[in-house]
Amino acid sequence: MTEEYRLNPYLTVRDAAGAIDFYAKALGATEVTRMPAEDGKRLMHAEIKVNGAYVMLADEFPEFSQNCEPVRAPTEANPPPVAVVLHFKTPGEVDAIYTRATDAGCTSIMPPEDTFWKARFAGVRDVYGHRWMFNAPLAQ
Fold first, then answer.
1. DSSP state, residue 6
2. Residue 97's domain is classified under what CATH number?
3. 74 within a domain of the structure (yes/no)
4. What are the pLDDT digits (tens) for 16-53?
5. Contact, 28 vs 86, CB < 8 A?
């Protein structure tokens, strides 16, 4: 198992194919794999690479929730309980990805700022309801 696959978020969205395109625009993601569902409309699994890390995603499939807990895409009423954190090497990278993400349509949760934990930090919510946080150490 490679370093990139030790821990990976798995996002559930509505319109996974559109999400892949959006994450390319907003976060510089590149598509790794795409597995269409039998209905030809949804993706049952996909992987993208963002800032050197793999993120997995799929469309929601409510019809398969009878034998397990249902997995739903976030909504305004039910936002996700977790966020995806991307770590960068420099504060300038945090500023750049924040600008790129908000220019692409992400909503600002926290504009870039220097924090008490000695990092440059920012946060956004993407158009699919998922929260992304950007973090880089400040020069000591």
1. S
2. 3.10.180.10
3. no
4. 999 999 999 999 999 999 999 999 999 999 999 999 99
5. no
